[in-house]
Amino acid sequence: MAKNILLLAMAIILLGAIAQGQALNPSELKNPAMRSLQEKYFAQLQSAADEIHAHVFPNSFYASRVLDLDLAHQEKADQRSLRFDSYKGKTVVELTGNYFAAYPEDELDKNHRAAATFQDVMLPVLQIAVPVFQDLPEVDGFALEISHQVRKKVMGSIREHPENLVVILDRDAAVRLVSARTDRERQAALLEGQTFVNAEQVVLALRDDLGKPQIEDSDAPSTARAAKEHPSPWTLAKATNFPATRPSARSAAPVPPIAARDISREALSAIQASLQGTIDKIIAEMDGQASFVSYAPPSVVSFRKGAYLEFSVNSKLPVAAAGSRYKLAALAFDDHIAHLVRPIAFQFQGDTPIDGIAFSTTIHTGETATSATGAKPASSDTTQAVEFFLPLESLRCYESYDCTGQQLIDAGAILINGERVSLDLQTAEAGTR
Prior knowledge:
Largest sheet: 8 strands, mixed
């Protein structure tokens, strides 16, 4: 009898140790400072962990000491995860976990998968945790590391592999994020933090280039009424069961002429100097994603009597994308440049000394293959030089999702190999031009 009672007691202790969402035991933290905080605020950690555990996620979510576990192993694994940790000398409240959503790789790209996990897991977790810890003087920020699954068809069979998403926010940005009511506000808060997918730093975009929210806005009722009165092409397409298409952009409002500006060499150099801090920040945060050309740093140039901050980037397209120069330019914009526009344009709010931003890109298409004789590799490569000069007002319209990519293109000037062209994205990508 006593033996059975002892076994029951041990089982209860074991189950309590691996209960989902529990805070990590302070004794398991090796850093003395973090261990001290874990002990001091253990009740708050436990309370937040219990609330996270009670939250209903769209798919199974487990706090976990170990990432990338399959579901069978995860259910038996230690699920104590919420803890204090140190990141680059700052103290963060950290949670790791496994989210058992499997995203089809051929339907959702990396950014859309990250945005889905952010919406499904990270945002609710932060909405629970941030109010609990935001007023603690020792807390500098929050860090979440969540693994989800990517589903891919290989040799006729479906296979899944893990993909890890990390979001790190300082305290002020996290507070703004959880109190935000729109995607624009959330996006602004996220841009102040760091996001990594499989250890590669990325910019997490909460909307795609059609303006479709990857995270739904929780705006006031007035916004919902406006949406019903003026439905977006995406909403209308879903409501009528038609495929969503790129909206026509020929109705774009004309951009007012740029006021006369001093574009002497000295004036451009002065503008460059005044923006250098912002330029350095953009390069540091976006270099991995943007493929900036290292030997051609951003510079302020004159174009059509205005001053433009020009970024030089490389755009790699698959050999299957080969086509007319218009098609290549359109694909480079949609697949590469468009993803850089919003985070860069966001850095230039209010009065700025520039009239616009330019993206100069060299488009590479081609692959290396074995030659017919097998003697040496044969290389096929096609390059096009494309420049996108985009006025600041149109960039802000696009950045706030009030203009489409096509409207942004129409308001600016596009040069292919030094010659100005008109570029219809939808027509060019269809290969009919």
